[in-house]
Amino acid sequence: MASPPLKRISDVVWEIPQSYKEGMRVPARIYATDALMRSMDRGVFEQITNVACLPGIQKYAYVMPDAHWGYGFPIGGVAAFSLKEGVISPGGIGFDINCGVRLIRTDLTLKDVKPKLKELIDTIFQIVPAGVGARGFVRVTHSEFKEVLERGAEWSVEKGFGWKEDLERTEDNGKIKGADPSKVSSMAIQRGFDQVGTLGSGNHYLEVQVVDPNRYFDRELAKHFGITMDDQILVMIHCGSRGFGHQIGTDYLRIFERAMKKYGITVRDRELACAPFESPEGQDYYKAMACAANMAFANRQVITHRIREAFSKVFHADPEKLGIHLVYDVAHNIAKIERHKVNGEVMDVIVHRKGATRSFGPGENEVPQVYRHIGQPVIIGGSMETGSYLLVGTTKAMTETFGSTAHGSGRTMSREAAKKRVSGHELQRDLERRGIYVRAVSMSGLAEEAGLAYKDISEVVEATYIAGISKKVVALRPLGNIKG
Amino acid sequence: MQKSGYEFLGDVAIADVAFKAWGSSLEELFESAAIALFEVMVNTKSVKFGVVKNFELKSESIDELLYDFLSYLIFLKDTEKLFLSRFEIKIDKNEVYRLLARVYGEQIDIKKHELRVDVKAITYHLFEVKKIDDKWVAMIVVDV
């Protein structure tokens, strides 16, 4: 595959002009350092320039620094479409609707947790089901499940799985408006209703982490997020809407293929199937997607509750006493209706973030009251070896990237290749020698997620920092990890 | 190349899993693709045939039929907690393509089956079914 012409806009911003491909409606912009640019697979450039061809796209089709080749959109792709003239595309969201990350802080430090790390991880591993075919620990009927779809994390808290304050610290308060279960197939309901309270598999994980005192970038900002100590313990959850969201993606991909014929839309990749946002199909998908988003919020909320229980059991204290509070919960596979400035004019757009995080700056209404003066927390989940980051959104992201930044470290190696390089058991032993205790349902799945298969997360974070689309707060180092 | 079979392609997908499946008839192709799909999740040789499910699907084109068939197997895996390892397929065409399937498998048992990675969905990315000479070949990328 030939490389497209890349124009350097700044140190970390590159542009592929509209003239590169017939049908491009806007240029593509890539956010990456030189090193990330060198290792970025060519598929990303092809996929993002296909996205740039979709009807109603505004300003640019964006690639975040952690991007890699996906299906339809690249992972790490961001695109905003006019509500009036634009489309919505399930391939721009992903099958795992509202896959996201949640960060929880505690009052504990490394000294408290180290002697009990194994007990803690084993306890969580036992009570949070993970892997293929797992049933959730929350049992609901089909009609109760529909309530979950309408109310998201609010449902979980009302049923006793969490605290009211958790909702204030979740994107959209854990409930996206407009969810309509009548737009969801009965197959999706059947597939998802017993998966509330499951972690999933693949790159999903639950991790006990510790603040890295050497990479404590902004203590003042960190304080606002409840992070005040060197060696403070935190917990990160990475999962989504499970089979429920996957089935909605599957159902609507088929519906949209038909709809495209009806609306005379052609796309360069079948996986980019889309429909006008205001069409009946577009609206139905949006309402179904909101259901899946809410299921994912509810799922991460009930898992949070289990984590509180596990800590309580292991450390013989109430979760309140242990200071187990939510920092924030972000959705990184989603489309959102937002108001942005486009070429000087305020416009309502549907922003697709597929493997990208909202990065709203200070003062934005969507940022919860507690954080509004400092901006939205951005949680960048890394591989189980390299660690993760807490960042914060910026005003510059609002003007540059429709308020978006990276979401993780991004793969550079295929699953097949990773498994050839390392076995799950080897990796588990190696990590344990380095003080990271891992429990995995699948050993081959563990190998596929080895750190060597991922980009350098610090380089990814640096690119977003240099670009000014998110600000560094603190880095987090893994201590114990649970994988599906 | 054997008469029917599948091959995983490491250089086609990064985060997802890509495979090629083939057979000397449409039925054989569908069976090969189904085995490959479950091989992503488990060693299918470790899965017994005790549970039997029958179903019928109709689609307007062959590629839609394959997409629907594989998606339905994922649906069965999640709803019935089943790994499937043997497939008997019949396909005919009147106004539309019709598939009759009898599939065999076993309840997922974490103690017995060595779990691999779960499949979320069949994607349309690079998705293709075609006849090359006397062979039916499909390219499939699954989201995991």
In brief:
The complex is a heterodimer of chains A (484) and B (144). By secondary structure, chain A is α+β, with helices and mostly antiparallel strands. Chain A is 34% helix and 25% strand.
What do you see in this structure?
The complex is a heterodimer of chains A (484) and B (144). With 484 residues, chain A is α+β, with helices and mostly antiparallel strands. Chain A is built from 16 helices and 19 strands. In chain A, 34% of the residues lie in helices and 25% in strands. In chain A, the strands form four sheets. In chain A, strands 7, 8, 9, 11, 15, 16, 18 and 19 form an eight-stranded mixed β-sheet that branches. A seven-stranded mixed β-sheet of chain A has the order 1-2-3-4-5-13-12, with helices on both faces. A two-stranded antiparallel ribbon of chain A has the order 6-10. In chain A, β15 (377-380) and β16 (388-393) form a beta hairpin. The longest helix of chain A has 36 residues, at 280-315. The radius of gyration of chain A is 21 Å and the shape is globular. The two termini of chain A are 35 Å apart. Chain B is of the alpha+beta class. Chain B has one domain (5-143): Archease, Possible Chaperone, Chain: A, domain 1, CATH 3.55.10.10. Chain B has helices spanning 26-41, 62-80; strands at 5-9, 17-23, 51-59, 82-93, 97-107, 121-122, 128-132, 135-143. In chain B, the strands form two sheets. In chain B, strands 1, 2, 6, 7 and 8 form a five-stranded antiparallel β-sheet that branches. In chain B, strands 3-5-4 form a three-stranded antiparallel β-sheet, with helices on one face. In chain B, α1 runs parallel beside α2. The longest helix of chain B has 19 residues, at 62-80. The mean pLDDT of chain B is 96. Classes of the chains: A alpha+beta (484), B alpha+beta (144). Chains A and B meet through α8, α10, α13 and α15 of A and α2 and β6 of B.
Question: Key features?
Answer:
heterodimer, A: 484 residues, alpha+beta, tRNA-splicing ligase RtcB, 7-stranded mixed beta sheet, 34% helix, 25% strand, globular, B: 144 residues, Archease, Possible Chaperone, Chain: A, domain 1, 5-stranded antiparallel beta sheet, 3-stranded antiparallel beta sheet
